[in-house]
Amino acid sequence: MKKLRVLVLVHDDLVPPESKEGYSDKEIANWATEFDVVEGLRELGHDVRILGVGSDLGVIRAAFEEYQPNIAFNLLVAFHDVAVYDMHVVSYLELLKKAYTGCNPRGLMLARDKGISKQILAAHRIRSPKFRVFPRGRRPRKPFPLQYPVVVKSVNEEASLGISHASLVTSDEKLFERIAFMHESFGVDVIAEQYVEGRELYIGVFGHERLQTLPIWELPFDQLPEGTPHIATAKVKWDLGYQKKYNIDTHRAEGLTAEQKDEIAHLAKRIYRALRLTGYGRIDLRLTPEGRIYVLEANPNPDLKRNEDFAASAAAAGLEYPAVLQRILTLGLSYRVEWKQVEE
Question: d(Cα 219, Cα 232) in Å, to the nearest integer?
């Protein structure tokens, strides 16, 4: 395996230390992904340099000129603290004619906007919950033909931003209250989608044209207190104390038939291609008690912590963590970006 010079792009407030020693679990959780990726790349023998990026693209150009890396390992999910601006950083890398890991700008744009992505999936006859978008600055009206309950969340933000028990609403009054709260508290456009009861499943995907799916993973809700909404709230996803209290731990989905596994894998590839994703991604689904599959969303560049869903499912497929990172590097180097095609 060729040893590479890898420039790891991280948010400037998430530059990891050299060691976890002396830090609490809560502190480590903030930069665990960045630490794990850097450590994993070094385990592979690559020369690694970390670059904190905030609101200045110039630091990226300067780092490429000084360090001459073979590739940028992109861990950025925002720029100027705006989630949808991550695609512009990747566009900048393409304009510099530099290799990078993860999804291309077009795929990021399509997948990040849940309203647009659902319209595209509908055009491909891929089942997803009915929805309506409520932009900022417009007075919301009843979301006909939606039926309650509905889940209210940001159109563009990830990581369960603003999702809590109150996000599941059952009346016009509560819906409009929640929309106003999201507009005012987070400054985001809002999407309301019909709640689908069922198992929450995740499936990872590698590749550009030729795709590989990973074993299906599940976020269980059976340990939550009675009456608690079965949705992936911010507490369920990120609160370590809450996870320990209610024994919330994702795991390989059990009890699926061979037909269901094949259907989910085939569906994940259709979604991945429809949204023009590349590199690696994760598709979030709901499986109803009747066996119907609904797509919740597609996540380009999902979390790469060593024990997070994507890496854990890859390990179940025989890919240990360093091998996952190497696969992502290889895909980044092999991606036939437009400037390469012009020069051929």
Answer: 8
Q: Which CATH architecture is the domain 128-194 placed in?
A: 2-Layer Sandwich (3.30)
Angstrom distance (rounded) from CA 275 to CA 160 = 21
Beta strands at 71-74 and 5-11: parallel, antiparallel or unpaired: parallel
Whether residue 136 contacts residue 186, with contact meaning beta carbons closer than 8 Å, is answered with no
The CATH architecture assigned to 5-101 reads 3-Layer(aba) Sandwich (3.40)
Contact 342, 72 (CB under 8 A): no
Mean pLDDT, range 298-318, rounded to an integer: 95
pLDDT tens-digit readout, 222-276: 777 777 777 777 666 666 676 676 677 889 999 999 999 999 999 999 999 999 9
Contact predicate 50/10, CB 8 Å = yes
Q: What is the 3-state secondary structure (H, E, C) of 109-158?
A: HHHHCHHHHHHHHHHCCCCCCCEEEECCCCCCCCCCCCCCCEEEEECCCC
Long-range contacts of 19-27 (CB under 8 A, 24+ apart): 25/240, 26/240
Name the fold adopted by 197-334. Answer: D-amino Acid Aminotransferase; Chain A, domain 1 (3.30.470)
Task: Report residue 36 CA to chain centroid gap.
Answer: 17
| Cα 185 to Cα 162, 163, 178, 190, 219, distances in angstroms | 9, 12, 10, 12, 27
Please give the C-alpha separations between residue 341 and each of 226, 335, 337, 344, in angstroms, as whole numbers: 56, 10, 7, 5
Give the C-alpha distances (Å, rounded to integers) separating 220 from 201, 231, 243, 292.
9, 10, 11, 18
Residue identified by tokens 């009675």 is: 226
Cβ contact 202:285 at 8 Å: yes
With contact defined as beta carbons under 8 Å apart, do 167 and 153 qualify?
A: yes
What's the pLDDT tens digit per position in 158-179? 656 678 888 899 998 899 899 9
Hey, where are the domains in the chain?
Answer: 5-101, 128-194, 197-334
Q: How far apart are CA 230 and CA 236, in angstroms?
A: 10
Q: 311 with 303: CB under 8 angstroms?
A: no
